[in-house]
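hey so u asked for the seq, here:
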Amino acid sequence: MAEEEITLKVQRFDPAADKLPYWQAFKVEIKPGMTVLDALFEVLNHQDGSLSFRFCCRAGVCGSCAMVIAGKVRLACETQVSQFQESGEVMLSPLPHQKVIKDLAVDYTLFFDRLKAVRPYMVGREPYPEREYIQLPKERQPINEPIDCILCGSCTASCTMAWTSTDYLGPAALLKSYRFLVDTRDSIPDERLDIIESERGVWRCHTQFNCVEVCPKKLNPTEAIQRQKLKLFKRKLLGRGRAKPTARKGK
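ran it, structure tokens below
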């Protein structure tokens, strides 16, 4: 094989046509600055138009192109092909333990169902301001990290607890829960704690740190989960029970 080429070994699977996944190899000419996503487009445009994979921003912002690259969950748009040039090949497969739609594209339905369960939006304090809620820098600091989550699904796909229990909310949803739990503008912290106070929530986490290792934004879902456990302990020590449902206007 010429030095300027690399072999992509792609896991192919079409549930409508195939009984089992299989591997298919494609040779791609390496160009300066080429990412794995660029290489997949070379295959799609010039070798096999049936190849399926997800993408959107191509800039590490949307998280759509998360997949297993050389045995590790990464974003294809941020992974340089040149790092695999010495071995001459790179293996690509879909996110693990996810329903495959086709080839490298997986079904995110369960992922977003888990996310919706934690009410991933701010419930503002009343009376509502005419323009905006004011936050001091020290009040903003706790959400500086979790707000950067791009919902790529890498952490949940790498979590062994999420593999073994579809009921478990998973690290992405629990990180999102923490993001609103520590937001000083939010008005339902106890209701948020109620959602995660179960085996389906924070108590399912076994602190394996898989989620931390694969996060493309270098976030720490494990720490966020442990901080929520501490909040639950403090609430129990203070003798506070589960929150009463919040009555919202217009309901």
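The beta strands are 5-12, 22-29, 66-69, 72-75, 89-93, 100-102, 105-106. The first strand starts at residue 5 and ends at 12.
lmk if thats what u needed
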